[in-house]
Every structure is written in structure tokens, then in C-alpha cells.
Amino acid sequence: MDPVPALKEPLQRPLKSVLGPATAKVMAEHLGLHTVGDLLHHYPRRYEERGQLTHLADLPMDEHVTVVAQVAEARLHSFASAKAPRGKGQRLEVTITDGSGRLQLVFFGSGVHKPHKDLLPGTRAMFSGKVSVFNRRLQLAHPAYELLRADSEESVESWAGALIPLYPATAKLESWKIAKAVQTVLPDARDAVDPLPDSLREGRGLVSLPEALLKIHRPHTKADIADARARLKWDEAFVLQVALARRRHADAQLPAVPRRPAPDGLLTAFDARLPFTLTEGQRKVSREIFDDLATDHPMHRLLQGEVGSGKTLVALRAMLAVVDAGGQAALLAPTEVLAQQHHRSVVEMMGDLAEGGMLGGSDHGTKVVLLTGSMGTAARRHALLDLVTGEAGIVIGTHALIEDKVQFHDLGLVVVDEQHRFGVEQRDALRGKGKQPPHLLVMTATPIPRTVAMTVFGDLETSVLDQLPAGRSPIASHVVPAADKPHFLARAWERVREEVEGGHQAYVVCPRIGDDADEPGGSGKGGRKKSAEDEAEKRPPLAVLEVAEQLAKGPLSGLSVEVLHGRMHPDDKDAVMRRFAAGDIDVLVATTVIEVGVNVPNATAMVIMDADRFGVSQLHQLRGRVGRGSAPGLCLLVSEMPEASPARQRLAAVATTLDGFELSRIDLEQRREGDVLGQAQSGARTSLRVLAVIEDEEVIAEAREEAVAVVTADPELGAYPGLRTALDALLDEEREQYLEKG
To answer: Strand 163-166 relative to strand 328-332: parallel, antiparallel, unpaired?
Structure first.
């Protein structure tokens, strides 16, 4: 079908012109739905078969649920209360059942009259509300409900077998109200413009978009749902991959200065003094990077690797190559602590090569400057001057590098560390500092499964370092069940003492700092969530300051125990890190500030308290701080969670594998994809609705190939008006900017 402009209109109509203004307002504010098309793409989360009831036995606490059940009994009670002192208060208690379990509903005050009339024993209805516990029994207070009567147009048989769509809902808008609204706009689905090229759709045997929308909202059979989902997954994957392929295509047209290292320059001098040989992986990835740097359009590469696989060394060699070629390189770190550590380790690795232009500096050398927000004015002025004149070949800093005042002589390469903590706007601002777009290398230490990388960083070519350098020791990890087996925890502290007595050092990591109430996550949304969790676990997460004090007085008395956390003054943090690195501190009790980039080869043991409060990839990151030298590492994951809990299963997974890619898959399967994409996509509306990144690996890989073929042949998509429309919808303004900036 040829998309004529008129066809686009129905799906772009604002909801407020179709639904009541109140409903449209709630949809816009709470669900982010503004047009008819948005609502048609708000798919049911699951389907209730009218004949088959939700099991009341499996209701989740504190969630909005919809259940289909039958009224078993209804009783009206009178009681006295402050508002109705003479026993005139009324409470209606209704018990509903689905054959497997029972659930209490309560209604109060003037709200009892209608349900008392409607909810007679034997009546079947859909009930929706938030599950809570009262007197140790589950209940729904004041649930919204809809009686299930056989409508005149539906015969009872078809009605009993029908699939009732249950939509992702909010407290302000129950699932069936959304269903009614969808019903109103569903006729417009027939005019949906199909984004998939016909050849692709027919070649893969996919139903058309109008058919898919009708089938997902009004399925007659489970096969309908499967057809619709298969088709809609393709839409999501394909449209996103076309957007990314167009970016890669556009980037390939941009000019950049090719940077080829001088034959006997800084890089050669640096390599000559390395005390070890590069691993095969490091050599291969370096070749990929050097090939990119030598071309006349900007490199966009993602370098991922296990903790300790030597990413920093690979990135440093790329920076030296650019300096050799007459350009400058900038390394951006997410925090001051990390910027200082990178600066220290780069200067150590380079030795006198980092003293270019100074007395005693090497003839090949260059200057390596640090630029952070908390530097003194004089030091800062000096650093800025070195950048403008080109005196400094390498600059390492935080986002302070991006401020307007910072001018480069000739910026050739930007290396961004830990991209997911670093906004797109910041990368963009830094890119604008080159005379032509600089080459870009993004490093991430959280290994990302290939398909997620293709979806999240689909505009970057990916290089993976998966070998650990020689001489790295394996890390043994164990779960310490503190509640089930307290003696295991006592043994953990003995192990720490043994490591220290053997001349090594240890970390103890805690989720919180402690010392005041305004902890991050202690207020607002996070706070409510935390309290429910704390109720379940009877106490707040362990805090650095308390744990350090208990250890110094108790199991680790006599050792030098110090603390490190994010609220310390940068100079104090730096002083503690230096003393720890120098071996003056035996045990460092810290928050996750040590998660990235701390390099103390003599630290061999790590005890992570309340390990269940950390994510899988975070635990993996933390663990990578030990075993960095020749002595084997030990990581103890302390948890009070019961053995059968999902939290403990997660910890067991971390303890049994050191493969970060495997762990990141486990992590993803437990979280929703939205979190992953949300993090990387600067919060823009990309939420994948039916595509699950891990389950749908094949779809994503195939969609990428198809997308590349389409874009290579027709970059402007002139032959695919439907696809252009879908792209415009995906790339609403915020995302358009996001993709442009990359």
C-alpha cells in the first residue's frame, strides 16, 4: 500500500481530540501517551483468559493488580469512628475467590453503597487495586471493579473464552479504562503506515502493521498474540537499527584528520620501556584502533573489556599515537577520584616520557596535565595554558574539560571512561572543541552482551578485550551467609587478618556512608522503596563509618583501618588512596567509590557487606579491584538474605563465574531492559515494548543486517516513506538530538 500523507493523520491525532480530556490528561502525564499512535503502541502486558482466573494465591505485595474472581460473600459492618461517633460508620467486607485462593476487599464510608448493591454473592467481576496486608491477610482496599456481564453483542461462549488484555496501568488509570480507550481508537489502526519494506515483511512472513495492532489488542487466539508480537518486535528492532545505521553512515561522511604515529616517536619509545609484552588481544584491539585513527573520518569505537584486561594501556597507546601525529588527546573520567587515579597511573606508566618540555624530560616526551573542578586557580590557569599552546599532549580530567573556557591547540582523540555515567551532551560539547570532529574511543568496564551493545551503542564499532594479562591471578569468590552461619562471618575476618599478616591489604565495601539521614536514596521515590525493603530485612544497609569502627575495635583490632567515601574532601580522599597504595593502611573500609580504576596490586582480599544490595555488574566491578598482582585474590560476599531468595541466587552466580559477559547476561535477565537502555539513552523515550534484548538476539542481529542494507542503498530512505514516518516518531526531538550528538 502506498502511504499517502492522508494515511498518516489518524495515528498522529492527539488523544484529547478522541478521548475525554480527563483521561487524555492522565495518559499524557502518567503513561507518556499523547497521540492515537502512542496509545496503539501501548501493548497489553499479558492476557487474562476469562475462563481461567488469576491465581489469588500468587498476588505480589504492593503492586497494582487486576484479578478476575467471583464474590463468595459480602458483609456490611457498622462501627464507631471519629467521623461517625455513634456507630454510624460503615465498612463493607467482600470475600472473593478464584477457586485457588481467597481475597478480602474492603470499602468504607459512603463508598459502600454501590458495591453493596453490585457485588452480590456469585457475581463475577474484574477487580483492580493495590495489594496490602491487614491482620496478616491480603486485601484490596477500595478496589475499582467492573462486573463481567455477557454483553448483548457477545455470546456467552465466545465471551468466556475471550482473552482480556491487561495493560501496564497506574493508580490513576486502571487497565480496563485503558482497554476502553484502546477500543475507541482501534479502528484507526487500519490506517497505520507500515514501516517495514514490503520485501522484508514478505520475505520473513510477517503480518502487516494494521493486522499486528488489531491482533495484539483484540486477539481471538494465542496464535494471534504470537503473530502480533513477532511482527512488532521486528518494528522495534528494525527502526532502531535503521536510526543507528543512518548515524554510522552520516559519521562516515564527516571529515577527520587522519592520525598516523611517527615511526620512531613517542609510541615506539613507550613500547620499548614496557616491562611486559602486550597480550594477543591487546595487540589485535590496538591494530583496530590504529587503522581507524589513520582514516579521514572520525573513529567511533567502543572498547569493552574485563576488569583488569588492560583497557587503560590500550587507550594510552592510542593517545600516544595521536600525540605522535601532532594532535592532542583527552581522557574524560566520570569523577575527580578517577581522573586523579588515571592521571597518576598514566604518568607512572610513561615515566620521563610524561615530562616533555621539562628539564630531565625525554626528547620524545609530552606533558600530561590534570584538569578537575576542585583545582586551585593558579594550577588551573597553568593547565589551560598548556592545552591552548599544545604544550600538553595529553589531558586527563572530569567534565571540567568541557567548560567553555577550555581551548585545545588541536584535539585529535577523545577517550571517554565508563560511558554510562557520562551524558551525551558532554561528549558532544567536547567533540565541538576539535577543529574537525576528533576521533572517539569509549571505554566500558561493565562487559555488555553483544546484542545489548548493538542496541545501546549501535553507532559504535566494538572491540573486546577478553584475555587477562599474564601474571594476573584468579580471584576466588565465596558467599558468606551471615544469618544462617554466623561463624562463617567470624572466619571471614580471620581470613582478612591472615592476608594482612602475609603482607597484603584488604578492602571492606559497604552500601552506605552512615553519619546522617540524607543518604542518597533516603528521600523521595527511592526512600519509599528503601523502606519497604528495609522492613523486609529489618534494618538499613550497613554503613562505612559504623562498620569501620566495629572492625577496628573488634575482629581487626591492631590493624590500621581507614575509611574512604564520596562525601570526603577530594584532597582527603586522595591522601587516603595514596596511603593505601603505599601500603600504610591495612584495611580500607569504603563505599563503591573504589568501584572503578583503583589499582593497588598489593590488595588481595575484599569483603562486600550486604552484597545483596549491589547489582551483579557492580559486584563484578568491585571484585576486579583485588588479585591485580601476582598473589591470588579473595572476594567474600556477605549477605543475610535467606538461601532460597533471588538475591542469594544472584550472589551465587557472581561467586561461580568470573566471566563478566556471562554475568551481565544474568544481570539483564533479572532486570528489565528498560533500565539498561534508559541508562544509556539519556532517559529518552526508547523503552522497548516487546523486544527483550537478551531473548531476541537473533532478531536484533538480523534487523541490523537488513537496516545496513537499506541505508547503504538509500541513505535518505526516499523509497520508504512508511519507514521515515516511523523514524520521525521514534526520534521525537529529544531523541533526534540524542542521536545527533551520540
So the answer is: unpaired
Question: Facing residues of 65 across strands?
Answer: 129
- Among residues 230, 228, 242, the alpha carbon closest in space to that of 195 is found at 242
HEC letters along 52-114: CCCCHHHCCCCCEEEEEEEEEEEEEEEECCCCCCCCCEEEEEEEEECCCCEEEEEEEHHHHHH
DSSP strand pairing (64-79 vs 300-305): unpaired
Interacting residues of 706 by C-beta distance below 8 A, sequence separation 6+: 200, 238, 241
Report whether 475 contacts 623 (CB < 8 A): yes
Q: In Å, how far from its chain's centre is CA 179?
A: 30
Q: CA 334, CA 596: separation in Å to the nearest integer? A: 10
SS3 622: helix
Whether the predicted pLDDT of 502 surpasses 90: yes
Q: Is 392 helix (H, G, I), strand (E, B) or coil?
A: strand
The whole model's pTM is what? 0.64
Extract the runs of DSSP E, i.e. beta strands, from 266-318: 300-305
Instruction: Provide the pLDDT confidence category of residue 55 given band limits of 50, 70 and 90.
Output: low
Q: Which of 43, 32, 33 is nearest to 11 (CA)?
A: 33
- Percent pLDDT > 70 in the chain is 79
Reported as a pLDDT band with limits 50, 70 and 90, residue 517 is: very low
Cα separation, 372 vs 361, whole angstroms: 24
Strand partners, 146: 126
Distance CA 710, CA 740 (A): 20
Pairing type for strands 439-444 and 367-371 reads: unpaired
Ranges assigned E (strand) in 292-333: 300-305, 328-332
Which contiguous run of DSSP H or E holds residue 27? Answer: helix 21-31
Higher local confidence (pLDDT), 216 or 597: 216
As a three-state string, the secondary structure of 551-565 is HHHCCCCCCCEEEEC
Mean pLDDT (whole number) for 525-529: 36
Helix (H) or strand (E) holding 412: strand 411-417
How many other CB atoms are there within 10 angstroms of residue 249's CB atom? 14
What DSSP state is assigned to residue 44?
-
Find the range with the poorest average confidence among 54-68, 353-367, 667-681: 667-681
Query: What Å distances lie between residue 430 and 199, 328, 387, CA to CA?
Result: 42, 13, 14
Report which of 29, 58, 737, 24 is spatially closest to residue 425, judged by C-alpha positions: 737
Contact between 682 and 738 under an 8 Å Cβ cutoff? The reply is yes
CA quadruple 375, 381, 386, 387: dihedral positive or negative?
positive
Instruction: Read off the pLDDT band of 635 (50, 70, 90).
Output: very high
Determine the pLDDT at residue 587.
92
Measure the CA–CA gap between 405 and 328, rounded to whole angstroms: 17
Of 135-139, 336-340, 454-458, 560-564, the least confident: 454-458
Which letter does DSSP use for residue 522 in this model?
Answer: S
Q: Which of 1-5, 181-185, 465-469 has the highest mean pLDDT?
A: 181-185
Number of H helices, E strands in the chain: 27, 21
Place of cell 577520584: 337
Beta-sheet strand order (sheet of 587-590): 475-481, 633-639, 603-608, 505-509, 587-590, 561-564
The continuous run of DSSP H or E covering 253 comes out as helix 222-253
Give yes or no for residue 624 having a pLDDT over 60: yes
Question: CA-to-CA distance for 435 and 22, rounded, in angstroms?
Answer: 52
Separation between Cα atoms, residue 735 and residue 515, nearest integer Å: 41
Structure-block grid coordinates of residue 595: 568501584
* DSSP state, residue 275: S
Q: How far apart are CA 488 and CA 638, in angstroms?
A: 9
Strands 46-49 and 163-166 come out as antiparallel
The rounded distance, in Å, linking the Cα atoms of 259 and 266 is 14
Cβ proximity of 28 and 170 under 8 Å: no
